[in-house]
Task: inverse folding
């Protein structure tokens, strides 16, 4: 089954064709990161305009790269949320046009389901499976007992982990995006500032990074006031250790409780080297998968892969043309 | 005339009380603008405010998407417009700000020109790990809220 995936939930315009949820025939991603960089993050209206500019090209290129015609496509899977509402609408509407013109069934996909299924492209999935989804907008632990069955065990009560990285970077005078640069500096610093590990003993699977953020800012402020020397690398290392300690501890807790056979780390923060090494060091009895870089960031291949499984799971029930974008959306349905 | 009240919030519980007082007087189309440094309590205030107007879902940071929408006794539009500093507006936000819900806007000063003249503004200042000083301002349709806060705290 050929599935055409469409992803425009944030600042990447992407169309992909994936066969049977596994073989990527094409995956075209047009990134806007350089445009948004100067604003310190994605600006919704600019993102929408860029999606409009790029969407036709991306559809054409994905079809050409795959060597297929629209008549060959069996299903269209498009991200319906969560994300920037204006950006989502462009992908959803473009997908609806193709669906209507060529009479192809269409389904709306949850963006996080896509991030989880990015893993299916390179590795298999064995259930029960635990997914840690960490990005600029999400921090969630999700348990899957079978294909397309999502149970949210916990999530952030305030800031997403990637967002905390961006904000800490801002305070330390480092450029956006904060994740990669803090990660890099952390490798040269020491965990000597004794930052708290928020909610590490809370007994549930929720996270909180807002208090840690405030604490780091407070320590930084006080040191500045006392005109003490601030070692940015130590700040980065201490912050990163605190964050990854909590992420790994909660993941292990969930792994033991639900006796999972596999762990997937998904989303942009899955690229963080500190998290990767701590996760792999701490968990050795079952496989811990990180999608390869191309599928860590937003892309339509993961949406097409998720679409294949959602369609089968729902007995090939398609959405109608009332399908629309939603800024917030529950994964569990 | 712009009414103004200054308060010391000694803990997160005081922040919750403030959010509740404002929520009691909430009305359709209301706009609450929040300012204050990173970590000064803007999102924490909004979380308590959302609960007080009957939002059941957990409210978390809108920084990444700029806007998150919640349903309670009112529709709540929670925005963080920090990234619009050098732009000053975003026409996609128009429909929400001038809609029927309640808008709570963090870093509202960056889009001040696209907001209506009257809003309720709350400025947070960090005193120490727990304490915050806040300055709340409002006029005309917001006067009653400022008065309610001022009455509650003078007693």
Result:
């Amino acid at each position: 089954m050929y599935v055409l995936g469409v992803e425009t939930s944030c600042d990447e315009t992407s169309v992909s064709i994936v066969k049977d949820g596994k073989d990527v025939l094409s995956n075209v991603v047009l990134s806007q990161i350089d445009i948004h960089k100067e604003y310190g993050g994605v600006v919704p209206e600019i993102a929408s305009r860029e999606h409009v500019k790029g969407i036709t090209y991306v559809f054409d290129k994905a079809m050409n790269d795959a060597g297929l015609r629209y008549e060959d496509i069996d299903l269209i899977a498009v991200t319906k949320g969560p994300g920037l509402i204006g950006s989502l609408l462009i992908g959803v509407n473009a997908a609806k046009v193709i669906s209507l013109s060529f009479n192809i069934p269409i389904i709306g996909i949850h963006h996080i389901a896509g991030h989880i299924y990015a893993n299916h492209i390179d590795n298999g999935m064995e259930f029960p499976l635990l997914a840690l989804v960490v990005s600029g907008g999400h921090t969630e632990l999700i348990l899957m007992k079978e294909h397309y069955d999502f149970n949210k065990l916990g999530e952030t009560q305030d800031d997403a982990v990637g967002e905390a990285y961006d904000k800490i970077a801002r305070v330390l005078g480092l450029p956006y995006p904060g994740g990669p640069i803090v990660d890099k500096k952390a490798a040269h610093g020491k965990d000597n500032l004794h930052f708290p590990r928020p909610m590490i003993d809370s007994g549930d699977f929720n996270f909180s990074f807002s208090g840690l953020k405030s604490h780091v800012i407070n320590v930084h402020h006080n040191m500045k006031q006392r005109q003490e020397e601030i070692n940015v690398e130590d700040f980065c290392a201490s912050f990163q250790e605190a964050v990854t300690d909590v992420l790994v501890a909660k993941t292990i807790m969930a792994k033991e409780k639900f006796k999972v056979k596999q762990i997937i780390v998904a989303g942009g923060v899955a690229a963080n080297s500190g998290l990767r090494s701590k996760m792999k060091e701490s968990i050795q009895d079952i496989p811990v998968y990180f999608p390869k870089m191309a599928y860590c960031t937003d892309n339509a291949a993961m949406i097409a892969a998720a679409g294949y499984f959602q369609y089968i799971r729902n007995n090939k029930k398609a959405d109608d043309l009332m399908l629309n974008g939603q800024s917030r959306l529950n994964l569990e349905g | 005339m712009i009414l103004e009240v200054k308060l010391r919030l000694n803990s997160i519980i005081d922040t919750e009380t403030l959010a509740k007082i404002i929520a009691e007087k909430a009305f359709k189309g209301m706009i609450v603008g929040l300012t204050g440094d990173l970590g000064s309590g803007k999102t924490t205030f909004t979380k308590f405010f959302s609960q007080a107007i009957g939002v059941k879902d957990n409210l978390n940071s809108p920084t990444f998407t700029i806007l998150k929408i919640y349903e309670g006794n009112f529709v709540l539009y929670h925005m963080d417009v920090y990234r619009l500093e050098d732009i000053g507006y975003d026409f996609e936000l128009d429909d929400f700000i001038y809609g029927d819900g309640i808008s709570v806007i963090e870093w509202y000063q960056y889009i001040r020109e696209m907001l209506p003249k009257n809003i309720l503004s709350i400025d947070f200042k960090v005193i120490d790990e727990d304490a915050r000083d806040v300055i709340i301002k409002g006029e005309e349709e917001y006067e009653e809220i400022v008065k309610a806060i001022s009455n509650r705290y003078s007693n």
